[in-house]
Write a structure and sequence with these properties.
There is one protein chain. The protein has 140 residues and is an alpha/beta fold. The protein has one domain: Rossmann fold, CATH 3.40.50. It has five helices and five strands. Strands 2-1-3-4-5 form a five-stranded parallel sheet, with helices on both faces. Helix 1 links the parallel strand 1 and strand 2. Helix 2 packs parallel to helix 3. It starts with 11 loop residues before the first strand and ends in a 7-residue tail after the last helix.
């Protein structure tokens, strides 16, 4: 693991959003924060296919996407691999929040997402995940 300026480890992160501008935003911002985006999926199906590798340390996904939403994709992924999720949405609705409160959810960000939102949410989500799932850290 390579340390980044803030002292947080470099993480391999998967992102998903049906908006191409948001995917590009995530790639640019997460790279700037010292992380590596290993996939930028445009729907839940692509996210599932790309997240079944154990090297993914965190998933940042939009909740509302066509075909398969972020919550559905998270269910499938977490049945196979242990990985924390940060959910993102432009909507503040009880149904969406309830869908994002599942055991693999470690944060909920409202759009528009800023670099500072990700910079502060990522280390908290990853540490809480580690505290809950591991006695010693085994994440990449």
């Amino acid at each position: 693991m390579v340390a980044v300026e803030s002292g947080n480890p470099r993480l391999k992160i998967a992102v998903a959003d049906d908006d191409a501008r948001m995917r590009q935003f995530y790639v640019e911002v997460l790279n700037r924060l010292g992380h590596q985006v290993v996939t930028a999926a445009e729907n839940g199906h692509q996210l599932v296919e790309s997240c079944l590798a154990p090297e993914v340390a965190l998933v940042v996904t939009d909740i509302r996407m066509p075909d398969m939403d972020g919550s559905q994709a998270a269910h499938i992924i977490t049945e196979r691999v242990a990985v924390p999720f940060l959910f993102v949405s432009a909507y503040y609705e009880d149904e969406e929040i309830q869908g994002a409160t599942m055991s693999y959810s470690y944060g909920y960000l409202l759009k528009p997402v800023k670099q500072e939102d990700l910079a502060t949410s990522i280390p908290i989500a990853v540490q809480r995940f580690r505290d809950r799932h591991y006695t010693t850290s085994t994440l990449p």
